TrEMBL record:
Protein family: Belongs to the aldehyde dehydrogenase family.
Protein name: Succinate-semialdehyde dehydrogenase / glutarate-semialdehyde dehydrogenase
GO biological process, one term: gamma-aminobutyric acid catabolic process
Residue intervals of the Aldehyde dehydrogenase domain: 21-479
Keywords: Oxidoreductase
GO MF assignments: succinate-semialdehyde dehydrogenase (NAD+) activity
Pfam families: Aldedh
NCBIfam families: SSADH
Keyword Aminoacyl-tRNA synthetase: no
Species: Marinobacterium stanieri
Keyword Oxidoreductase found: yes
Active site location: 256
Amino acid sequence: IAEMLRDPSLVKTKGLINGQWVEGLTTFEVENPSTTQPLARVANLGAEDAQRAVDAAQQAMEQWRSVTAKEKSSLLRRWFDLVMEHQDDLATLMTAEQGKVFSEARGEVAYGASYIEWFAEEAKRIYGDILPATTSDRRSLVIRQPVGVVAAITPWNFPLAMITRKVAPALAAGCSIVLKPAAETPLSALALAELAQRAGIPDGLINVIPGTDAAAIGQVLTSHPLVKKVTFTGSTRVGKILMEQSARGVKRTSMELGGNAPVMVFEDADLDKAVAGVLAVKYRNAGQTCICANRILVQQSIYERFLEKLTAKVSEFVLGDGFDASVTAGPLITGQAVNSVDTLVKDAVGKGAGVCIGGKPANGKGYFYEPTVLRDLTADMRLAKEEVFGPVAPVFSFENEAEAVAMANDTEFGLAAYVFTKDPSRIWRVSERLEYGMVGVNETGISSEMIPFGGVKESGQGREGSKYGLEDYTELKYICMGDI
Ligand code: ADP
């Protein structure tokens, strides 16, 4: 992989603890899901390394918390500049280890970097408050302080952005961090850490523990007394384990978990816009995002027309290796992922769903699944309840608004929902009734560093990005001053 980079020294294969690149007792292989070829062997760190990293993070934080906001801001800004300077190299690493097409990978680097830029700016806007006093000889105030050492566990679907969303606000707030990236995509994480080093971010503030024994590392990160906050993006199943473990030490948690996003298309919608919106939010990253459309709910009167238009667009996808410029759809992350998608599709088809296009794994090397559109979905199919992390659009039909809202809310998840309609009162009515953390109205490209990203119900708690995202990394301290 190194020979594909302008700056080959961005390929890092060791862990980072206290500013030192460290080996593990063993190594693990990182593979390219488009070709199934090995890319690199990375140090396999474990529980003891995590322990050391937390101790180093605590030490580093003692100094960092008293660095001025302006200085913190300019270090983060320098990191942002370096990430953007190396956008192509970072995107190359990402396409190689994760599979997303190169243009999407470049997009993720810019998106991920935007969180560093944003929190570099927000670092200078952490305010306290003077409160009304209860007696005339007192003054009451609150200040915001760093929450402490943060542990972050991140997934493979956005190998860079899911990290910057956590590391940048942590550093801006005065915290330090120990990061365990997904074992499928450690190279992006390590390159990012290398650039942080080059930016002059002090040793020990960002520690990276690549490893395959996630449970053992997670155990340390959720039980070490010096860790004060655990932030996680991944499955609801693992999120629940981490919350349980963190509860024992009353650690704060932020959880970005699974989704089951509905897209509601009403008969008064602009159909072409709705199709374009679904296409963008369903097939991006081969359907492997937590805000991907999981259930497409279309009003009966426009059902056939919608299916026709969507299927026509989906037939234009070119499946293949993300480095090929003509390719518009990449692979899934593993063979296991292909199997799980296929199982959900087979379940639906077995129960009566129709296949408009796709519906099976693609032939040849690599972990590819054909971009798929399914019709005549019903509530008894697993696709109605479970997140399909793949390029499969299950299209349901509904009669009226009340039924559509009930269907949309009929899930334990509550991350993102989308509505296509031109009726302004319906926009308000439906948006307010949806039990979701985020609602896109006539728009599916909803995420940016300036908005609070997060879910309700079993999709998690806490928000990332925006001014709200910083609060999660601070504690409010009340100071009562008497005898004034
Ligand atoms: P995904 O389906 O995206 O792989 P996971 O929740 O399995 O979702 O993985 C997200 C992150 O959680 C990865 O970094 C993975 O290594 C880590 N992880 C998986 N199991 C555990 C666990 N028991 N404790 C801590 N981290 C875990």
